[in-house]
Amino acid sequence: MDPVLIGETLSGLMFLGIIGFLLLGFPVAFTLAGTSLLFAALGMYFGVFDPSNFGSLANRYIGYMTNEVLVAVPLFVFMGVMLERSQIAEQLLLTMGKLFGNMRGGLAISVVIVGAMLAASTGVVGATVVTMGLISLPAMMRAGYKPTLATGVICASGTLGQIIPPSTVLIFMGDMLSGINAQVQMAKGNFAPTPVSVGDLFAGAMLPGVMLVALYIGWVIFKAVTDPESCPATPVPASEKAQLKREIFTALLPPLLLILAVLGSILGGIATPTEAASVGAVGATLLAAFRWKLSAKILHETAVQTATITSMVFIILFGAAVFSVVFRMMGGDALVHEFLTGLPGGPLMAVAVVMAIMFVLGFILDTFEIIFIVIPITAPILLGMDISPVWLGVMVGVNLQTSFLTPPFGFALFYLRGVAPDSVPTSAIYRGILPFVMLQILAIALLFAFPGVVTWLPSVIAG
Fold first, then answer.
1. Residue 302, class by beta-carbon neighbours within 10 Å (0-12 exposed, 13-18 middle, 19+ buried)?
2. Which of 204, 226, 385, 451 is deepest in the core (most CB within 10 A)?
3. E strands of 28-125, at which residues?
């Protein structure tokens, strides 16, 4: 039998096998590595895989651990967890709710805005959804909001951290796309390619992030006009108006200034993402100290949660590296290349198919699992078709934001279900996210039709 056919067949079966084991509930990182090793053994048996290929893993792992860009991940996570643990995010949400409470849908609009602000400070989806679920959901229920709208707004706003900088997903994708783009350009004979940085992806994601926020707020306003009973106003008592002005300066401005300092330094080229992340981590700690919310317990809890989240992500990355080696060395990349380049419609059709596959995978896999598996396989082919790496990275980011919302394994749904009262049925949470999933699909379609929304700001900053 043809060895090429055997290798490609095993590659395809390995991909399906990983998805099957994940559906059975096995841990992600160990499933990626374990299933890959199992199929590597089969490949060795059939003579289509050389075990010496594993020799590259050591250098790859050392590269991950010494990569200065990836140091930004735990620092941004620390920043977000500190804001959440020290109740700064809670006070921010309460203040914003009072600020917009006089208008119909005002509480929901405040949740969207605070979700965007927390996204711009951390990118930690779980902490954002849980915080807003604990604070805003009871307030919205007391105000008479329909459970579907309340839960949908909280889940969707909590996932904005996947696309609004400084997103940890964009950090990993920026690092991956930078290396892949350099290899593709050198293979084409361009030995001085224009570098792609994490800062470029951050700049490219700014306008799409703002667009998503506008779409969410637009939906809330639409509901306020067409179904006023679903989101009634919650006027601030006259006795609290004077206090509200003080809270705007004490609870709203300091986190906003910190966010502007972090993002502004990155986009302005003043600091690298890692340097800005360190400023953000220290700034969040100082904010907690100034508000008398910092203690040894909070600092310990923040450090432990940061280490837990960071370890989880990097273990998945290490497991995905094993998968990538086995898949490519058995001919899986050639199989994917033939499939994508053979599609009618050229590069845009290839991108559309990859986006569709990622969207479907989002129903059953986590964001990091998808990018660590799919990007190394498909990005070299798509970038070889002269697709903009910045546009591709942002498109993937917006697409995979839906993986937190789509059942059965939408993590934002699980986070909210864990803190929602029993009076809010699970069915209401699942129904509530449907309009927001459709809004994100609309956003993907707009970015597909108008790529300048992504590429304009990076080009302006570049020169």
1. buried
2. 204
3. none
State both tokens at 84. 């959440």
pLDDT at 37: 93
3-state helix, strand, coil in the chain (%, to 5): 80, 0, 20
* HSE of 294, CA atoms in CB hemisphere, 13 A: 14
More confident position, 235 or 356: 356
Peptide bond into 166 cis (omega under 30): yes
Token digits of residue 138: 């009871």
Considering the chain, what is the average pLDDT of its residues?
86
- Give the pair of three-digit tokens for residue 293: 């919310």
Alpha-carbon separation of residue 344 from 351, 420, 449 (angstroms): 12, 47, 18
How many Å apart are CA 408 and CA 368, to the nearest integer? 17
105-138 pLDDT, tens digit per residue, is 888 998 898 888 877 765 566 667 877 788 788 8
Whole-model pTM above 0.90? Answer: no
pLDDT for res 316: 84
Is the separation of the CB atoms in 22 and 31 below 8 Å? yes
pLDDT band at 26 (very low <50, low <70, confident <90, very high): confident
* Contact yes or no for 165/266 (Cβ under 8 A): yes
Rounded distance, CA 69 to CA 171, Å? 7
Nearest in space to 332 (alpha carbons), one of 4, 43, 5, 8: 8
Task: Kindly report the three-state secondary structure assignment for every residue of 200-233.
Answer: HHHHHHHHHHHHHHHHHHHHHHHHHHHCHHHCCC
Round to whole Å and give the CA distance between 149 and 136: 12
Query: How far, in Å, are 3, 73, 444 from residue 323 at the CA level?
Result: 20, 23, 28
Record the tokens describing residue 305, joined without a space: 């949660």
pLDDT of residue 124: 61
Measure the CA angle with vertex 43, ends 37 and 45; round to 5°: 110
CB 221 within 8 A of CB 449: no
Contact between 451 and 391 under an 8 Å Cβ cutoff? The reply is yes
Q: What is the mean pLDDT of residues 389-401?
A: 92
pLDDT higher for 389 or 134? 389
Angle made by CA atoms 162, 333, 46, in degrees to the nearest 5:
130
Q: Which two tokens stand for residue 24?
A: 């059975």
